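Posting for a labmate who doesn't have an account.
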Amino acid sequence: MCGIIGYIGEKNCVPILLNGLKRLEYRGYDSAGLALINNGTASVIKNKGKVSLLQEKVDSLNLSAKLGIGHTRWATHGVPNEINAHPHHNHKKNLFVIHNGIIENYQTLREGLRQMGYSFLSETDSEVLPHLIDSFLQKGFDLFKAVRLALSEVEGTYGIAVIYEGEPNKIVAARKGSPLIVGVGENENFVASDVSAILAHTKQVAYLEDGELVEIYKDKFITKTISDTEIAKEVHEISMTLDQIDKGGYPHFMLKEIMEQPDSVTNSLRGRILFKKGTAKLGGLESVTEQLTNSKRIIISACGTSWHSGLVGEYMLEQFARIPTEVEYASEFRYRNPIITPEDTVFFISQSGETADTLAALREAKIRGALVLGICNVVGSSIARGSMAGVYIHAGPEIGVASTKAFTSQLIVLALITLLIARKKHLSLIDGKSIAEELKNIPQKIEEILKLNSHIEMIAEQFKDAKNFLYLGRGYNFPVALEGALKLKEISYIHAEGYPAAEMKHGPIALIDENMPVVFIAPKDSTYEKIVSNIEEIKARKGRIIAIASQSDNEIDKLVDYTIKVPDTIRMLMPILTVIPLQLLAYHIAVKKGLNVDQPRNLAKSVTVE
């Protein structure tokens, strides 16, 4: 959940590390630090709070070095403060480690190290690593072997980078369950947890796999397994540009990414619809299409917003592909001994492709023989590499912690998968063409909704001081209610809950009074009359009502306080449209409350710990 960057080369690494940490700020963090080795002398600078505070410290010291590592920490073990911040060091302060992940057996390791005479300053699990590595250095091993032997005693997850005064010509890094890449430059090399940290310097990267360690020199890198077998790593060129991870003139990444959705959805669709055949073409699934089509059951496993997209996918797949579909929280999936057979297909959805719970569930499904497929955004991510096949959503970099464009692109991809399977089974050419045409029109319809931004901002002004919100929807729009509530919770810190509208009478209606805003997702579909009845029930109890309604609906305005109208489309695609006003509503409420929209408290973009 934190950020890692390291540099070795001929340049002063201090500005490179600081700028890299700034690129990683979107991941969520509460402290930051650097460790440098210059002319055989090590120094460490760290603090609670933002990278900008770290930069002020560094600037006042006028530091320079050609070898260094930097880190942004998201607290797990120990409160956010300077002592718990990374990098951590050994007792001599000549060995420095930065760590993402959780050391599950740290208490056992800590006790053993204490008995060897080591003492600890922090409350973190991570601090055992420099002392553990040091214990092997004291036995005469070189740095790489000391790291390798130390990690063989570690249980848990890690992405680490290590530097040592005694060997100032290298960085040693390793990965297990937490993403790490090597960046390859001209007479300089990098290590990072995220390509955005090094994109300004190189587009050549090698991806570390679990159980791999790497020695990084300024002119080469050597990769080995934890059992000391050397591995030849392929270097990939990434297509992302710096422009894609800048705000582009918007005040926040979140607003930029909401406004990018006509383009991100277009990119998710590009080249994937065969209009004459009324079907989809998904190159990443070609090798498994028959097996997927003949699945007896589909399971979708995900977390957070991706879980909500999976719920919509369940409606799509059962309605059109006629395959029984279940949606599982990845965090629960692996722990409940699920029944999985080789006739099942399990989709794993993750924006980052690094979500720890989802990765763990993926490995469990693989062991049990299912067809394991990935749906993710980040090319080369762990889920993409660990799946048997899959589909990239091609939404482009998503920097805002609260996911927006990735969600709508996930829905597009799920719709394409549904269309592909349904046409291979029983869906007629006419119906297939109808769905294909509606998919083609979605980007333009999103553009129409985005023109309502000022109207939605006005509504946000009326509700920015609310303490609670209720979101209600039926059918395909029940998951949208969940997603709208999640967006509001994430960035405005207003308590919000999403429910199926029919469930309102089974408890939540007790909360309704003149202070309770209720958002209805109420397009004109087969559930519309039922939704109107629910609106009447709220109105009778003086609840304040916002309705997301169809453009063609002129009656609903008489029943509610505020309406936001969206274009009509077929039911399976309506969630792509109805969610966008909810994204904007949450955004504007958070801005009006003066909150940090892109980096909400306690949250991280990529959840790489369980």
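Reply:
Got it, the structure tokens are right above this. The longest strand covers residues 31-38.
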